[in-house]
Amino acid sequence: MQLPPPIQTYFTARAPQDGDALAAVFAPDAIVHDEGHDHRGTQAIRDWWLAAKAKYRHHAEPIGLEQAGGKTIVRATVTGDFPGSPAVLSFTFGLAGDRITDLEIG
């Protein structure tokens, strides 16, 4: 499965060393919606990602890719320190050029 480069970076980045690289694939005004909260801008997204990695020590392995409504939807098996692990989640990405403009995880 060939993921677009910014999405590939999202799934291959490792915490904490890749925090800046992860933030760099998001547009400056990007938004991430996860666990009922919105995280706006690259610094907030970087902080959210690092905190989530530290809390859950999770890893997401993409298992499916589709396009719908102008979005790129990646289904991934997520394993980590959380109830119900492993779980299959959908990561719905909005892209503009080589940047992620929005991401909804659910």
Brief sketch in words of this structure:
The protein is 27% helix and 46% strand.
Task: Present the secondary structure layout.
Blueprint: H1 5-12, H2 19-24, E1 26-34, E2 37-40, H3 42-56, E3 59-68, E4 71-79, E5 87-96, E6 99-105
Structurally, how many domains make up the residues?
1
CATH T-level fold name: Nuclear Transport Factor 2, Chain: A
Radius of gyration: 13 Å
In total, how many beta strands? Answer: 6
Tell me the strand order in the biggest sheet.
2-1-6-5-4-3
Number of helices: 3
The oligomerization state is: single chain
The CATH class name reads Alpha Beta
Helix content: 25-40%
Beta-strand portion reads over 45%
- Overall mean pLDDT stands at 97
Structural class, please?
alpha+beta
CA(first)-CA(last) distance? 21 Å
Shape: globular
Architecture (CATH level 2) name: Roll
Domain SnoaL-like: 8-89
InterPro entries: NTF2-like_dom_sf (IPR032710), SnoaL-like (IPR037401)
Protein name: Nuclear transport factor 2 family protein
Pfam family, one: SnoaL_2
